[in-house]
Amino acid sequence: MRKPRITAAAGIALTALLAGACGVPGAGGGAASSGFEGPRITERVTPEDVAKMGDTTLRVLADAGEEQTLEALVPRYEKAYPNVEVEVVTKGFDDLLKTVPNSLSGSDAPDLAQGNQGYGTDGPLVRAGLLRPLDDVMRTYGWENTYTDGALKQYRWTPDGALFGSGSLYGISPVTEYVGVFYNREILDGLGIEPPGTYREFTAALDEVKAAGRQPLMLGNAEKYPASQVIGLVQGQNVSSRDVRSWVSGVPGATVADKGTQDAARTVQEWADDGYFGRGYDGISSDDAVAKFAAGKGAFLVAGSWNAPALQESMKGEVGFTLPTRPDGTRATVGSLGMGWHISAKTKKLPAAVAFLDMLMSEDFAQSIADVGRTPVTGSAEATSPVADAVNDTGLKLLADDGQNFYLDWASTTMYDTVGATTQDLLSGRTSPAGFTEALQEDWQDFAAEQREAAGAGAEDAS
Amino acid sequence: MSTLSTPRSGTAGADTGAGPGAGAAPARRVGASGRVRAWASRQYWPSFLYLLPAAVCYGLFVLRPLGQTAWISLFEWDGLTVGRWTGLDNYGELLGDSRILAALGHSLVFVVFYAVLPVAIGLALAGLMSRMRVRGLSFFRAVLFVPQILATVVVAVSWRWVYDIDGPLNAALRAVGLGSLTRAWLGDYATALPAVGLVGTWVMFGLCMVLFLAGVQKIPTELYESARLDGCGPVREFFTVTLPALRGEIAIALVLTVTYALRNFDLVWNTTAGGPGESTSVPSVFIYQGAFLTREVGAASALSVCLTVLVLAVTAVIMRLVRGKEG
Question: Left, alpha or beta for A104 (phi > 0: left; psi -120 to 50: alpha)?
Fold first, then answer.
């Protein structure tokens, strides 16, 4: 009985292999789009244009963070365009990033979807030709007047998806988010420390809090990324935004192994050594850190502006927000516009989709965005609380200073992991500041080499 | 394996001899095809129809994806655009990647925590409970089994709280004057791996215990009685009666727990995400990252195939060693 069983097993394995061997994976899907074919938008879409489509459904795939924004937008939209029904699906950030490529490449793709800037998500989407370039829409609706060129670069890609930061515009967002410094008014008042305005004042305040025997900074780094945002905040003081963004975008010859970044890494490593972050930060999740900060642990919290609504709710008037300025009075920090809204290259409802983006980006809608605690950049709006006001006000100044440095982890498909693990190594003293920047640069170079190789292979295939 | 180099008689003949004409032919001329024919002629073919529904589902949802994974592992593919044939390059890169080898090392540590410890604890508990009558036995059994049925994310979140720098474990240490030992157990390079491992022990030992208790109940009481008449103490009794009788259950428990240890992902991802640094990374974390985050689907598939082969091999070894001829 032994031999036949082996034969049968081999037969099954062979069948399985043959069943699997159904051709080159990905063949028949979207190929790299060299030049977009399809109707152009040269005039603003009118309700009549949309009405011509007859009764239809506009399908939208969005991040869960957009839920409240969409709850305000969709009824407005359906009232203005009564023949369109909007069908919204939202997913948590991690889920969205994992599923959006397959959603858009499937036969049942949504008309509008959110991605995430950088080589991790938007890059593959552009390379696979799944996104419609929005240059014509941008010109028609004047988006380039709302934003600085530097800010819009985060949605720009060369059509082959190989280089990020130049080329066609593939996405847009009406909000901005960035990393800043929350502070506990009660603790600062108790120690007689003024809320810092400049970076020098900020570091002086940290030293004073430490000298008074309290924990200066709250940090929860279990997810590995939060500490890298602290480094990014300090890097913004030392390195020009242009250089940081060039590196993130993969501009050939750029480097992160520069003195400014190394100094930033050293500063944060020293803070860790000197107990500025307290103990056990690698075992605390970022949400727990926000909760602990709200409960009075740590005088400062370096975190994303998106935490303002939660902190306002738990701390009320005790929470303040600042973004330390550079010696010349300008600001620069880890930050970007919101996750980009994309129009699917496959959509058959272009007028409805463009009208949707138009309404989202309109000045009239800015107040609705502010009402849900976010920072609109599309028009003036009144914030819901003093801390939200500080966040919104600073966010606009940051944009005016062209100081959005993007996120280091956008720089390659593996950078999120590299930055996270290396930051933990840095803070625990397992690697030096130079080792930290070298590890990032090595990842960056490996990725650049892969990109070149892929581009070469693509050219071979074409010839 | 296609031909036998030396003629065999007796047992070899019995193996294939039932086929028509096979008995007359010298054994060495019975090749693989002859054996298949002999085997085929013995079958009552309509009986295979009963297997068909299950076989179709198995083929469609297990073997086909497995085959596809193996096929994709031969490409460099981002999951969207057309893949590029790279042959066995993905496998070569795996072997050269020190991070993967380190992750495998972590997996072996997890085998101790997820398989060896739970089986040992389960055996000890089963041995105890087989000797004494415990009041409310089914209650204890149910309580000890609870970790097994809790959702992993719930387990992970609870243990993150237990291990937290301000959590109950550190509070207890401070209360007994061991404040110098306190730390963020999951955030410390030295303790993260055993800390996650102990969570696994806690999850798995209930399953082992229930399996062994069920096994103990089917051991005839006469065996215990005669062992006691022969003057066996509790320890001797455990090793001469209980342990040998539980061979089958131990094999099952080991296969389940070792498999869980090797493909362990959810517990690690939800407690440490492989950190701090890379100190708790396991192969599944890299598979997940490759497939969903870094979009190196080919490399992730290659790692999946290797992991599958490893799990199958380890399972086969366990079945052979522990169950022996019985299986």
Answer: alpha
Total residues belonging to chain A: 463
Q: What is the CA radius of gyration of chain B?
A: 26
Instruction: Give A242-262 pLDDT, tens digit per residue.
Output: 999 999 999 999 999 999 999
Quick check: B36 and A18 CB within 8 A?
A: no
What per-residue confidence (pLDDT) applies to B21?
41
User: Which of B37, B71, B89 to mutate to test binding with chain A, by most A CBs within 10 Å of its CB?
Assistant: B71
In single-letter form, the type of residue at position B248 comes to: G
In angstroms, what separates the C-alpha of A83 from chain B's closest C-alpha? 34
Q: What is the average pLDDT value for chain A, to the nearest integer?
A: 89
Name A181's bridge partners.
Answer: A302, A322
Distance (Å, rounded) from C-alpha A303 to C-alpha A181? Answer: 6
Cβ–Cβ below 8 Å for B59 and A16: yes
Q: What is the pLDDT of residue B261?
A: 93
Query: For residue A38, what are the contacts with CB-CB under 8 A and spacing of at least 6?
Result: A132, A345, A350
Kindly report the pTM of this predicted structure. 0.81
Give the domain ranges of chain A: 47-172+337-400, 178-334+409-451
Rg of the Cα atoms in chain A:
24
- Whether B80 contacts chain A with CB within 8 A: yes
CATH T-level assignment (fold) for domain A47-172+337-400 = D-Maltodextrin-Binding Protein; domain 2 (3.40.190)
Q: What are phi and psi of A280, to 5 degrees?
A: 75, 20
Whether ipTM > 0.85 holds is no
Say if residues A320 and A185 touch (Cβ distance below 8 Å).
yes
**Which domains are delineated in chain B?**
1-43 (no CATH), 97-326 (1.10.3720.10)
Domains A47-172+337-400 and A178-334+409-451 share a fold: yes
Per-residue pLDDT at B232: 86
Q: How many residues does chain B have?
A: 327
Question: Are A284 and A222 contacting, i.e. CB atoms less than 8 angstroms apart?
Answer: yes
Distance CA A206, CA B224 (A): 71
Secondary structure letter of residue A432 according to DSSP: -
Q: Say if domain A178-334+409-451 classifies as CATH 3.40.190.10.
A: yes
**Chain B residue whose CA is closest to A27:** B82
Peptide bond into B194 cis (omega under 30): no
The predicted-structure confidence for A183-235, as pLDDT tens digits, reads as follows: 999 999 999 999 999 999 999 999 999 999 999 999 999 888 899 999 999 99
Where does the pLDDT of residue A380 fall: very low under 50, low under 70, confident under 90, or very high at 90 and above? Answer: confident
Contact assessment for residue A337 and residue A35, using Cβ atoms and an 8 Å cutoff: no
Residue A286's H or E segment, with its range, is helix A286-294
